[in-house]
Amino acid sequence: MRRDIVHVGAASLKYEIREIVSIAHEVERLGQAITWENIGDPVQKGETPPQWIREIVSDLVHQRTTWAYCDSAGVGETREFLADNVNTRRGVQVTTDDIMFFNGLGDAVAKVYGFLRREARILGPSPAYSTHSSAEAAHSGYNHVTYNLDPTQGWMPDVDDIRNKVKYNDSIAGILILTPDNPTGAVYPRAILEEIAEIAREYDLFIITDEIYAHIVYNGQPRLHLSEWIGDVPGIAMRGISKEYPWPGSRCGWLEILNKDKDDNFAAYVDSLLAAKRLEVSSTTLPQMSIPLVMGDPRYADHLDGREAMFSARADEMMAVFDGCESVLVNKPCGAFYYTVMLNEGLLNHGQSLPIANPRIAELIAGRVQDVAPDKRFVHYLMGATGIVVVPLTGFQCAHEGFRATLLETDDVKRAWTLKTLRESIEAYP
Known about the structure:
Distance between the termini: 49 Å
Helix content: 40-55%
Structural class: alpha/beta
Order of helices and strands: HEHHEHEHEEHEHEHEEHHHEEHHEEEH
Number of strands: 14
Mean pLDDT: 94
Largest sheet: 8 strands, mixed
CATH architecture of the largest domain: 3-Layer(aba) Sandwich
C-alpha cells in the first residue's frame, strides 16, 4: 500500500497459550489424541457450573431486558451491587460510577493499555501473562518492561527490582500485579503488596491488579483485593466471572476504579476509558444481570469454598508426583489453577528430542523446532510424543525455561496419567 498501515506495536501481539493450538491441531489430524493443558477453561476440562447457577441464567433468558442494550458502563443494579461489595471490605470506598463493565477482561486489558499515552509504560511481572504483556508492548511499540518474580522464593515479586526499575525509568507510570498469579499460581502476602503500594505512592504511580482469580485461593491464603491494601494510591482492579462461576464464554469482566479523586491526570485517563465504552454502546447484558443473583445467593460462599478445596487437593496431587524429581523446581500453587514447572538451568539444549511413534508427526515436529527456545522445543516434542499440550515458560516473557500446565482436568484417571507422563517425559528427555 502507498502508506504503511501496520501499527508500530503489531509485532508484539503474541499469545503463546493460543498459538500452540494450531500446531496441536495439525498433530491431532495426524492421529495423536490431544490433552489440552494450555488454556485456563474449566468448562472445556469438564467442570460444569452448579445447577442453581445455571437455573438463574436460564431464568434470565426469559426476561425481556436481558436482550436489550445496557448502559455503556454496565447494568446499573449490578454496578451498585459490586460497589457495595467493595465497600464492605473496609478499604477504599467506591461509588457505582467507579464500576465499569467490558466484554471480558481481554477487552478491558486492550482498553486500559490502548488508551494510555504511548510514552507511559506499565511495569509488569516476569513471568508475564501474555494478554497483559502483549497489550502493554503493543501500545508503546517497545518490549514489555518487567520486574522479576523469584522462583527460589515461591515466585514472589522482587520488590528491590521493582523499586530500581521505577527509580531509574521515569517513563513508568504504573505497576501491574497479578495475584493470584498466572502462570505461577503464587499469591502475594499483604506485606509485599503494601510495600509495592508504598513505591507507587513515593513515585506518583498508579496500580493495576488482575484479580480474575481473587476468589480461587487455598493453602491458607486469604482472599485479598486491591481496595484493601492500596491506601490512597490511584488504582484499577480487574474482575470477572469467567473463572468463578465458571463461565468463560460469558465475556463479562469489569474494572473497579479506586481513588480516582486523588489525581486529576488519572481521573482524565479513566474518563477516556468510559468514553471509549460509549462508542461501543453496550457490553454483554445478560451475564451482568446474573451477578447480583449469583454472588448474592447464600449458596455462593459454599460454591467458592468447594472449588478452592478441589484445587488445593489437586495442587497436593501435583506436588506429590514431582516430589524427588531432581530436574525441576516446582512451587506449590496457592491460588488460580495453574502450576509452573521450571527445568533446571543447563538441562535443555537445541539437540534433544523425545521418540515419536508416528513418522509424519515426527517430521512435523522436527520442522517446527528450528531456532526456537529449548523449552519450546521440549513442549513440541512432548506434544508429538504424548499429545499433552503445555505452554513454554519462555513464552511468558521469562528468562527461565520450563512450562505451565493446569489443575483443571476433572477426570481423576486422566489427570493422574497426565502428571505421571509429564514427569516421565522430563526424565526421559536426553
